[in-house]
Amino acid sequence: MSFLRAVHRTSRAARLFQRSYAADAKASAAASSSAGAKDAEDAPRSSCPPNTVLIGANYLKNQPAVLALPDEDYPPWLWTILQPQELPDDGPGGKAEKVRLRKENRQRIRDQNFMKTQ
Questions:
Q1: Which pick of 29, 56, 61, 74 has the fewest CB atoms within 10 Å?
Q2: Does the structure show a pLDDT above 80 at 24?
């Protein structure tokens, strides 16, 4: 892929994710902070208001535009998907140790591959 193509992709992606409601979000955040502390349950979770056209989400031809839904219409697990997964410490040979060893092994392989290129 050429350099110009990468720059074009980056600028196109930046245009897709620009939001015209950023000023409204800042104003509402300032109003909510001055109104007092809200519970985490009452605060909106999504980054866009309902009925916002989600540009780039509709990749099929001749289909209607994809619109954002209210926060209540999404499943509850969606809001926790970006939180890191916490594995219980179940002793030696357990799942947590296996995951840790796998991460260490992958990093060791990456380091070895990097050193081979030097």
A1: 61
A2: no
